[in-house]
């Protein structure tokens, strides 16, 4: 099977390509403004040579007949696939389905904020709803499946999700740097959406002596989130030291170097927790025990601890991890057994390639039926103008401030 992948998130499509057995995957990604943990590994993928939507659509139209099916991550990827007139699967692994662009006044999920995200206008919302509805399949893992199910009755739940076990394992040679005391690595972004406020409250209740190395990387999509982050930094626990962002291909060296990992406390598991569990490091991570994973039709309680996000419970566990080797070993064993079932590439690629086979059988050509290319070209040009207008608005707000900008444009 010849699969075209557009866009990527935490290396999901990259890992799909890496471990494919019955398919050949070509990944084309969007140019990155800067290298971050989420910007992923740069090898093994082609990049669009332009940020212009029309040129990206043109590129896909030129190569689409070389493929049987397309898988997209991010709304930008879906937009390009739709405008190119092809059949595509949408895969959601994060807030992109919890805060879809076709919903007015979306509130950032897991953040506790009440401030809505910037709204698209009705033309844009209608366009993105069309993009979403046109996908031949929409797939999401456990926590995000429940958001997806609200909008697609045929939503597909895949709780298995890739970990690149070549990159993340306990045989990795650690980074060479000194350690003065027991050290936690916290590679999560800073923000309430990752539960850092709860975690840092717990740190202040701890009785043991340890260091926490926290990457200086923020979630700040709204003014409220920016203000919350300022409060977090102002009240930084004494154990926490901010460090620069770590490139993804270097991250495993830092994970195996650390004594333990601080994950997110929102009830959702992310790449950091899964990757760290494969490196056999104890992870402090709250995931809702009332939401078991569905693996081969069997409900499995995730192997992470604690089972509560009460700061007092978290503090007790942190202290026990620092002082007890037996506690650390038990955590590692439970976590590893769980992620092995959930994330072993051999099983994940089997599920995906079974889905590819079903969809290709139903849609033998990548070219979408009833695709109105003239209309889609018109929409592509309109999208370009709307995106440019939005970017200019955001740039001007940043330069002048929101209140001054609104006064100047009244």
Shape: globular
The proportion of strand residues reads 5-15%
CATH classification class of the largest domain: Alpha Beta
Number of domains: 2
CATH architecture of the largest domain: 3-Layer(aba) Sandwich
Describe the structure.
- This protein folds into 2 domains: 2-161 and 348-408, Rossmann fold, CATH 3.40.50; 183-343, Glycogen Phosphorylase B (Rossmann fold, 3-Layer(aba) Sandwich).
- Helix content is 43%, strand content 12%.
- The chain is built from 15 helices and 14 strands.
- The chain has helices spanning 12-19, 53-63, 75-83, 95-98, 122-134, 142-151, 196-203, 223-234, 248-257, 271-278, 311-323, 325-343, 345-362, 373-400, 402-408, and strands at 2-6, 24-29, 46-47, 69-72, 88-91, 137-140, 156-157, 183-186, 211-215, 240-243, 260-262, 283-284, 293-295, 298-300.
- The strands form 3 sheets. The protein has a 7-stranded parallel sheet with strand order 3-2-1-4-5-6-7, sandwiched between helices.
- Helix 3 (75-83) packs across helix 5 (122-134).
- The mean pLDDT is 87.
Features of this protein?
410 residues; alpha/beta; Rossmann fold; 2 domains; seven-stranded parallel sheet; five-stranded parallel sheet; 15 helices; 14 strands
How would you concisely characterize the structure shown here?
The protein has 410 residues and is α/β, with parallel strands linked by helices. The protein is built from 15 helices and 14 strands. It has a seven-stranded parallel beta sheet with strand order 3-2-1-4-5-6-7, sandwiched between helices. A five-stranded parallel beta sheet has the order 10-9-8-11-12. It has a two-stranded antiparallel ribbon with strand order 13-14.
